[in-house]
Amino acid sequence: MALVNRCGLGCVVGALIFAISSGMVVAQSASVGKHDGQHDFDFEFGTWNTHVSRLMHPLTGSKEWSEYNGITVVHKVWNGVANLLELDMKNASSHLQLASFRLYDPATRQWALYVANSHGGTLGVPAIGGFADGRGVFYDKEPWEGKPILVRFVITPRSADAIHFEQAFSADNGKTWETNWIADDTRIKDRPD
Fold this sequence. Notes:
Elements: H1 4-7, H2 16-22, H3 24-32, E1 46-55, E2 65-77, E3 82-90, E4 95-105, E5 110-117, E6 127-132, E7 135-144, E8 147-159, E9 162-170, E10 178-187
Antiparallel strand pairs: 1-2, 1-10, 2-3, 3-4, 4-5, 5-6, 6-7, 7-8, 8-9, 9-10
Protein name: DUF1579 domain-containing protein
Keywords: Signal
Organism: Dyella humi
């Protein structure tokens, strides 16, 4: 979800190269161990009400947040070894449409999260990671204001009908993190997907 703040959820997917070189992905894969994670996203299939809080000017010291409401739909692809998330959200002054295509690699037992927004037309470098102890953690490296940053995206299922998401940036190789995207999804029941 990295550059969700500037170019949409699609920019979230860039910090992987740094994560691999710094050992962050290796550490994540060690925590996954022998777990076959190809069904780790099954809990998310369906339609959700989404509330997003977005830090408007990350890594500047700004505390200006913007709130959005919308709908997220997650579709199973290839019997669950991939999935497609569509998020359509708005507030009084902005309308954002994001998509995330998530692919499972059985060799590494990790997921690659590719993100795009309706204004961009491209996919960024994927955020790579997986689930351990009921929590998904994904990293990538991407440019922000001309400098490389790390991006961490965390997915925490709270129940069968509630999920919490957070994205954070680090400009100092992961020593400190600034959260810039918080989303909470609540399942919409009795709605065809």
